[in-house]
Each structure stands twice: as structure tokens, then as C-alpha cells.
Amino acid sequence: MNRFPLSVLELAIVGQGGDAGTAIAGTAAVARHVESLGYTRIWMAEHHNMQHVASSATAVLIGHVAGQTQHIRVGSGGIMLPNHAPLVVAEQFGTLETLYPGRIDLGLGRAPGTDQVTAMALRRNNMSAAYHFAEDIRDLQTYFSADNADGRVHAFPGEGLTIPIWILGSSTDSAHLAAQMGLPYAFAAHFAPAQLWAAIDIYRREFKPSAQLQKPYMMACVNVMAADTDEEAEWLSSSLYRMFLGIITNERRPLQPPAALPDILKVPEVYNAVQAMTACTFTGNKESLGTKLSAFIKESRVDELMISSPIYDQEAKRKSFSILREAI
């Protein structure tokens, strides 16, 4: 457990009183900090039409963060592939891998990363693209392959480069696909934990070795808030609970400073919805977090943890990652 792989998921969330510029600067600062702590990778997620999320141009942000760091892996958690032509993704990530060799990951998701109206604006006449997710992944693999030399369409740069492809998901559908294709699998338990255990079982049971991966490799993304005391960590987590409350009630705001939770959480339907989304949230000091997360790792048998930490204060956020590294 001493050096269990830890990684970070960043959405460049805009905090109260900030803007996209400060959010992106905060993401870069987190990347530099966790790199110094020995974290394995930092990923950015594609979202659209969300005023307080600054990661919509995900490939651009990945390039910025990779340029601000030296050796940590940087990638997408994920690129929502049905929003893009596979050739464009291959060219973008081929360019990133050329600029930052050996450091780029390509995590792929099937969801739109937004509402349906915005998905239509993104995909235009290609609204059935999600049904061709597996086929589009194979196209991407072809564009990256050195064996595509005789193909009529090429990704330059990209062809012949080794860019690890991951399947992302929040349901058992993605687990079946990742296992069938022999690809590493990352599950979004930080906001949709309901099917985590079933997905883990399916992925490990159905896994078929591939040219990229000989045995299953499973990563779970969870929420973590660490501090010097359990009470302080729980206080920091109030920003996360208010963020999810805003999603459920459709009253989205910038990430709020820690504060007492509003009375609407006492409504059973609201409370249950928030609890369902945050079931894989861990708070505490170094000792209590070590105990909680060690138990989770043992029970889930995950190979790596990716951490989402929507903490309002940037100094407290970086400190949380430091305490977590000591805890695991």
C-alpha cells in the first residue's frame, strides 16, 4: 500500500469570485503539486454548456497542463468520442503525444457531457454516434497503428505513436466493452457509484487480453477531502455537497466556500439523491482516510484510484492531496 497509484481528475471548476482563467490556473497548480508528490496522472474531463466548468476544450487544456509539468501523465477523463470525428481526436492526441512523448492518456466516454440540446449543437446530424462507440474506438486504434501505412486516411501526427486508450464509464455497458476490447477501464464513482461493484465484476470476469493490455486494469474515481482533522475535512466537503445539490435542483452556481448545508437537504427525496451521487466520497485526516481507503481498495480490488477534490480554497485543496498521499 506504500506507493499505491493515485491520480487526479480535474474539471477546472470555477469558484465563487473567480473565472475561467483562475480555474485553469488552479488546475495547473494542482498538476504541478501532485506531480511533486508522485501522483501517476492528472486527467481533465470534457463538459459543455456549463458556465462554471472550464474544461470544454479538453485537448487544449491537456496541452497547457502538460506544458506546465515535467513527467506526470496528462490525459482525458474523458473525451466524449461521439462528439468528435475519430480522425480529429487522433490528430489532436497525436500532436499532444508528439509534444509530450510518453505522457499522454486518451480516456474515452460515450455520453455527451452535456444536455441534449447542446449535444445536438455539437453533433448536428450525427446524433446516432453513440451507437457506434466501439466502431469509432477501433477507427482510433487504426489511426494510431503503424500498420495503417497502406490506409487511405492517416492521422499525422499520430500514426505509429503509442497512446494508451482507456474506456470510461458509469454503467455496466462500459464494463462489457472495456473487457471485450482488452482496454483499461475507469469508473466514474465520484458522481455515479450505483453500478460500481457490478461493473468491476463484469470487467474482471469478461476481460480478454489485447495488444495494449494483457490483464485487466481497473481505476475508480472517487471524491476525497483530507485535512488535519476529521471535522475540518467534513467542513471542506460541504462545497461538494452543495455542488451536487445544485445539479439535482438545477440551480448551478460557482463552487461555493464551505458553509452549513441548506435546509432543502432535509427533504427526503433531495437528501437521497445527493447521497446516491456521493456514496463514494471519503473525508478525514490522514489516519482515518488511510483506514477508509485501504478498506475500499481491498474490497474493490481496483488497481488505481483517481481523486476528485472540489475544494474551494486552493491551498486547502493542495494540502488535501498531500495528506492523501501520506495516508495511502
Automatic annotation (TrEMBL):
Cellular component, GO annotation: cytosol
Record GO terms (molecular function): oxidoreductase activity, acting on paired donors, with incorporation or reduction of molecular oxygen
Origin: domain of life: Bacteria
InterPro entries (UniProt xref): Bact_Lucif_Oxidored (IPR050766), CmoO-like (IPR019949), Luciferase-like_dom (IPR011251), Luciferase-like_sf (IPR036661)
Pfam families recorded: Bac_luciferase (PF00296)
Domain Luciferase-like residues, every copy: 15-241
Family under the similarity heading: To bacterial alkanal monooxygenase alpha and beta chains.
PANTHER family reported for this sequence: LUCIFERASE-LIKE MONOOXYGENASE
Protein name: Luciferase-like monooxygenase
